[in-house]
Amino acid sequence: MSNEIEKKLDSHKVIDQKNRIFSLRKIGLVFFILLIVGLIGGEGFFYYYFIKSQAQITDVIGQLQTAQQETAQQQATIIPVEKNLNAALESIQQLQTDVKQLQQEFTQTQVNNKNKLKLMQAAYYVKLANDNVQYINDIPMALNLLKMADQMLQDLSDATYDDARKALANDITALQSAPKVDVTGLYMRLTTLNTQLDQLQLPNKLFVADKSTDITTNPSDQPWWRRGLETTWQALQKIVVIRYNDNNTRPFITPEQQLFLYQNLHAMLEQTIWGLLHGQTAIYQVSLQQTAEWTKEYFVTDSSVAQAVLNELNQLQQIDIHPANPSIINSVQAFKKIDENNQ
């Protein structure tokens, strides 16, 4: 009995175990099914988002490809521009270099032209100085001109012209030691003398009849032949003048001739002034000598005016208005040599 009960208990235990195992299997199956369903659902959800993300990525990749293509096109466009820009920059740099070179050449040309102009001016000053020495005898002006020429060469600062400057220095020293003629003083003396000529006295005086000695007669009291003879005599007195001159008597000068005599004296003295101003020694000396001779021949030399005029004429004749001046031919030849070397 007990065995049957044990068998029944054992059978119940087995049944219970089987029921438990079945129940566990059912629960596991349900859980598995749920797991499968969950997995399937999660995979779908993941797949959905994966597809969506992939589409976005594809879109982004397409945009990147488009941007890359545009960048490539832009680069393809930029490369020639860069080449042209580089070429332009090189051209600009070359142009700047050429401009600088032209500026330097232009500046040098200006300097050369300026120096050439100064050299030409210096040569012209030397020529004028030589003319003043030879033809005008104006030593002060010649000195100033030579000094101006030397200053021009000094501004050039070129050792090539040292010989010319040496010649200028020698000629300047020579002119400074040359005898000087006071042309202005002599001119004033001659001008004063010219005004004194009108004060020279002529020897002859016009005859003036003394009215107290005149015999007045009434023509009506004289016979006709007497009246005719008196009229003829008075007419002859007006026409004929009788003078008795010895060797020391000066020639008689009529009133008309007196005017020409004074005019000729003034003209002769003005000719003397012209010879003085132009350095013509012969004209100066001959004019003074002729003025003195005419004064002695036609005027009263005993008067104080005549003595003063003759004394001044004698002193003026003793003055050499054109003494021998040193030559500045060395400076002239030095500049001529410079001109030949520059050609």
Describe the model:
There is one protein chain. It contains nine helices and no strands. It starts with a helix and ends with a helix. 13% of the residues are buried. Mean pLDDT is 75; it is low at 205-216 and 240-246. Among the domains are: 117-179 and 328-342; 180-204 and 253-324. With 343 residues, the chain is mainly alpha-helical.
Helix content: over 70%
Q: H/E order of the elements?
A: HHHHHHHHH
Q: Poorly predicted ranges (pLDDT <50, ≥5 residues)? A: 205-216, 240-246
Rg (C-alpha, Å): 69 Å
Count of discrete alpha- or pi-helical segments spanning 4 or more residues = 9
Overall, the morphology is rod-shaped
Short description:
With 343 residues, the protein is mainly α.
Give structural attributes.
343 residues; mainly alpha; rod-shaped
Question: What is the secondary structure topology, with strand pairs?
Answer:
Blueprint: H1 2-136, H2 139-156, H3 162-176, H4 183-196, H5 224-239, H6 255-277, H7 281-298, H8 304-317, H9 329-342
Helix pairs in contact: 1-2, 1-9, 2-3, 3-9, 4-6, 6-7, 7-8
